[in-house]
Amino acid sequence: MRFVAQGSALETPTEVVADPASKYSDDWRSNGPPGGDVRSLVVDPNNPDRFYFGTLDGQMYTSADAGRTWQFLYNFNRPRLFVDHIIVDPRNSGVLYVAAHRHKEAGGFFKSTDGGHHWRESPELKNEALHSLTQAEANPDVLIAGTFNGIFRSDNAGDTWTQLPTFATAGLVHVESLAIDPRTTNTIYAGTWYLPYKSTDGGKTWKTIKNGIIDDSDIFAIDIDPRDPNHLIASACSGIYETRSAGDSWKKVQGIPSQSRRTRAILQHPSIPGLVFAGTTEGFWRSERGGDADSWMVTTSRQLEINSIAVHSSRPQTIYIGTNNYGVMVSYDGGKNFVPTNAGYSGRFANVIVADREQSSRVYAATINTTTGGGFLFVSTDNGETWRPSMRSMPPRLITYSIMQDAHNVNTIYLGTNLGVYRSLDRGTSWAPVWAAASSTKTKGRAGKKRALAAARPTAPKPNDTVRRAQQALNAAGYNVGTPDGRSGTLTTKALRKFQTENHLPVTGKFDGATLAALHVAASGDEAAPVMLSDAVNALAQTLDTGNQQPLFLAATNLGLFRSLDPTQGWQKLSYGSAFDARTTCISADLQNPETIWVGTAASGVLVSRDAGKTWQRMSGIPSEAPVNVIARDPRRPNYAYVGTKQAFYMTHDGGDSWGRRGGNLPFGDFTSILVNPRNPDEIFAGNAYQTGEIGGGVYRSLNAGSTWARIDPKEHRLPSQRIWALAFDSQDQNTLFVGSHSAGVYVVPRGSDSVSIVSQ
Predict the structure, then answer these.
(1) Which residues lie closer than 8 Å to 91 by C-beta, 6 or more apart?
(2) Which residue(s) pair with 633 in the sheet?
(3) Can you give the pLDDT at residue 111?
(4) Is the pLDDT confidence value at 566 over 70?
(5) How confident is the model at residue 332 (pLDDT cuts 50, 70, 90)?
């Protein structure tokens, strides 16, 4: 998707910058990776081809071809804004209403009269967190909004709002769901974090309607039967309930397993009687018998989390769902089978991008799943135009923090993840943790197999002392073994198997080498033994061992910096000493100067070793109170270095003896990525992930080694996401820039013809 200039009623003018560094490219494309989080998803009641959806980062998208392709419509420019409710006015499709929130924090109500191109924010609801919104069928001028502080009503199509008197009714706050009887605007149903309520006088007075509902039930959704307004179905944290007496009494709907009971969306089909859909945190469920017991079937993977369901009555067999991670999905057979339909939409948090060193069009990108945890890995073979998943043999909930292509074997790729180091021997086709014997035996022959088996074979430590210390480590990690006694009894074995399972280790039930390494426990008499990294690895780097000139791997972890000549055989810690924070966030090392290693820490600023990690000193020009995100060094001028922290950007041109902060036109910010052009090291890019409202975010460019800067991402808020987490060049000529965003995937930015880039030969 290319982005073009759009106006905005909420935008403020941006001053034109004349700096030559700003003339980089007007062509910013977001082609994926496709999918992401979709919150509210609605269809125009007057046009079955027109759809809208909202995201959890303040954006809206639309489709004019029944969801086959999507176009970016609007950016409210408010990070972390959940656009959870969209209504298309049935009288005029150009009129849209949006209710939004930031959990407990304010979100607001917005109205558009031109199909979503311009918006007006309601002043009465500006400071409210809106979690629900509904429109009256009997009088569409009536809108009801549910907020964290109660309920508001508008009688003039959202132009003005009045808070309803709900404070006299105990518990009528934190309003999660709403519905209005189609026969009258006086009958309103409200679901809160605790119970359902009802008003029969337009919201002046309220009563609880909890007969048959378990107390303290969070009511996620309320749906009124289009054929019988007295028949309602409500989804709650304690299950699904229905009433045929307009809420006087409820009965629990059986059939959906309890683990799927968090049903975020419930819908009685508008034109097929008895067909009911439930979108849950564990898949899409359908019933053809009105939700009767034993009539429910799950038709998607239970790994799928569903936020919304949309159906147009004129196309009864076409069902759309908005999901976490997988974007919009569509079924053409009444909800029995679904396929993704996300062309033009990427809502992914792209935190790492690496271009393949030899294959010019091959790019790797890691994403983080914002709502569900875990993440995905994608590969593009056409310079970011299309993407495909690359996650074979990866465990669920794996998050990639670092991607490194081996300096000597381009087919080998390493990942630093929340579960340790993973490796691919086939350029990303399949993956395995580096301690997995199978991945070693494929390429190392008989001798390699013997070494791999030996590495996986249980150690024979002194049972009492080693087991006791391992028990202590299990207790400290939250796996209760009781009082450590040095004996592997039933409770210890049970906790050990759970630890091995959750850390994706071979489940042996024994304190074997891999498990002891993951617990950071050395066998008795072998305190210096290598350990396996099974916790978060924040960054990876490769250099040379100064002793034997063999390839040396470095890993930054929250426990410190580790080194290894062969990651499959374990890692050894490089100590900073007691004076510095061990939590290591990033590494800068190179093959030409292996003695010098730079690391960023969480609370000790930047540390440097000039003797291959034997001793360390802190760079005095970098404050220690701000965690360090990234260190980039000039590939041609080793004394030129650039540091991005959670607060500011720093640079040195003399190896760290003196430091400058920011540079001209560069604001304070959360600088997560720095890119130095290897063909012209005076050209530097910096990505900023800090944004609040109109301020912050963006990609900055310098043409003079950081002395002055200009912002290069398009003005007037044309991008869906301006918080930047990753930067990379194509590996061939550095004329394509890849930009990883917080909620719009990877931007592909070809260098413009008038871009100033003097290439040094």
Answers:
(1) 140
(2) 641
(3) 98
(4) yes
(5) very high
Q: In one letter, which amino acid is 500?
A: Q
Q: Give this prediction's pTM.
A: 0.86
User: Which sign, positive or negative, has the C-alpha torsion 507, 508, 510, 516?
Assistant: negative
DSSP codes, 475-513: HHTT---SS--S---HHHHHHHHHHHHHTT----SS--H
Q: How many CB atoms lie within 10 A of CB 559?
A: 16
Distance (Å, whole) CA 260 – CA 280 = 6
CA distance 668 to 297: 53
- Residues 322, 308 contacting (CB under 8 angstroms): yes
Rounded to whole angstroms, how far apart are CA atoms 690 and 668? 9
Q: Are 345 and 298 in contact (CB under 8 A)?
A: no
Q: Which residues pair with 51 in a beta bridge?
A: 43, 63
- Express each pLDDT in 632-664 by its tens digit: 999 999 899 999 999 999 999 999 999 999 878
pLDDT one-digit tens code per residue, 184-195: 999 999 999 999
Query: In this structure, what token pair is assigned to residue 49?
Result: 């081809």
Choice between 446 and 613, residue whose per-residue pLDDT is larger: 613
Distance CA 264, CA 266 (A): 7
Assess contact for 340 and 295: CB atoms under 8 A: no
Rounded-to-integer distance, Cα 117 and Cα 380, Å: 32
Residues 6+ away with beta carbon under 8 Å from 567: 414, 421, 423, 434, 553
Name the residue among 129, 127, 57, 78 with its Cα closest to residue 99.
129
Q: Which two tokens stand for residue 715?
A: 């003005």
Q: How far apart are CA 325 and CA 368, in angstroms?
A: 9
Distances (CA, A) of 324 to 327, 328, 414, 564, 681: 6, 9, 27, 38, 40
Quick one: tokens of 188?
Answer: 């309103």
Q: What is the pLDDT of residues 232-256, one digit of tens each?
A: 999 988 888 999 999 999 998 887 7
Has residue 2 got a pLDDT over 80? Answer: no
Taking only the tens place, the pLDDT of each residue in 173-219 is: 999 999 999 999 999 999 999 999 999 999 999 999 999 998 878 89
C-alpha span between 226 and 271 (Å, rounded): 8
At a CB cut-off of 8 Å and minimum separation 6, what does 55 contact? 36, 37, 38, 39, 61, 83, 347, 743
